[in-house]
Amino acid sequence: MTAADLTPGPGPDLTVRLAPPFDPELGAALAALGGVARVPVTPENLAVRQQRDAAARPRPTLRDLRADGRFEVEELRVPGAPDGPEVTLVSARPAGITRPLPLLYYLHGGGMIMGNAWSVLPQLLREWSLPLELAVISAEYRLAPRTRHPGPVEDCYAGLVWAAANAAALGVDADRVVVGGKSAGGGLAAALALLTRDRGGPTPIGQLLLCPMLDDRDATFSSHQMAGVDTWDRTSNATAWRALLGDRYGAADLSPYAAPARATDLTGLPPAYIDVGSAETFRDEDVAYAQALWQAGGEAELHVWAGAFHGFDTIAPRSALARDARDARTRWLRRVLAR
């Protein structure tokens, strides 16, 4: 044996980013969809993807949402931002309850480029509104690239301000409002918490941030690690952020109301629930946001679901991990509403 034999080798290539394994149930559900679930959104296919989503995504009618009289549901057209159009809100509550109810003000996902306010309501009403005796308002914000920042977040803010000012007519308690959303909607909910704090608007008692889209910079370890692997990877993410921000994409002084991960002051924000998958593009930015809230003296409950990809609970809703995630979200909502 020579000295050369004892010399350490170069070690692992640190540029290689092995992706965490998928949970077996989730991996099987994703595999069953074939490659279609991981085809990225690009600037070239964006318009086609938007058209396909608008045609395929469920858009239940008010009659559907009323579920044979179990819910009271109405569409409202309310004033938008000073220079913006009216905003459509879909307001729903369990039927037959006359007392003011707490309100979940919810913002749908879709990368800021897809989705609608109606499609998310059946699950919200079934899983939260009915068992928790909770009113829900889902906001139909404008989508990019037709509407760039700040249009979408201003739509959401205008709807929230209107709902708080008209709480009595809506039968809701303006002092018990939770803002929430999933993916892009989670990012908008986080931005809304910042915006209401800074403008002195309605003060939420909580922010429910489900795999939130928070950081336009696409520079985290997980965004590189999950490239080409997650159902929403850094190519799709960059396409969506560019659609929203236009020539402000990547700007050093980008507003935190556009990308909440840019915020430097997270003091004075409502308690947050944040969840994300370990095998997800948004993992590191969401974990960092929870840490920043703690470091600012705030309250955050963080769940990182092992082996979960983006949208796992939609693709595999009956999986054990999806059931656990829904249970954890419900428990947090119940605790926040009981305060």
Discrete helix count: 13
| Radius of gyration over all CA atoms, rounded | 21 Å
Distance between the termini: 70 Å
Uncertain runs = 1-14
Tell me how many strands there are.
8
- Residues in β-strands, percent: 15-25%
Element string (H = helix, E = strand): HHHHEEEHEHHEHEHHEHEHH
Query: How much helix is in the residues?
Result: 25-40%
Spatial strand order of the main sheet: 1-2-4-3-5-6-7-8
| Principal-axes shape call | globular
Largest sheet: 8 strands, mixed
Topology:
Blueprint: H1 3-6, H2 24-32, H3 46-56, H4 62-66, E1 71-78, E2 87-94, E3 101-107, H5 121-132, E4 135-140, H6 151-165, H7 167-170, E5 172-182, H8 184-199, E6 206-210, H9 221-225, H10 234-245, E7 272-277, H11 283-295, E8 300-305, H12 312-315, H13 320-338
Parallel strand pairs: 3-4, 3-5, 5-6, 6-7, 7-8
Antiparallel strand pairs: 1-2, 2-4
Helix pairs in contact: 6-8
Protein traits:
339 residues, alpha/beta, 8-stranded mixed sheet, 13 helices, 8 strands, 17% strand, disordered N terminus
Word description of this protein:
This protein is an alpha/beta fold and 339 residues long. It is 38% helix and 17% strand. Strands 1-2-4-3-5-6-7-8 form an eight-stranded mixed sheet, with helices on both faces. Helix 6 crosses helix 8. The longest helix has 19 residues, at 320-338.
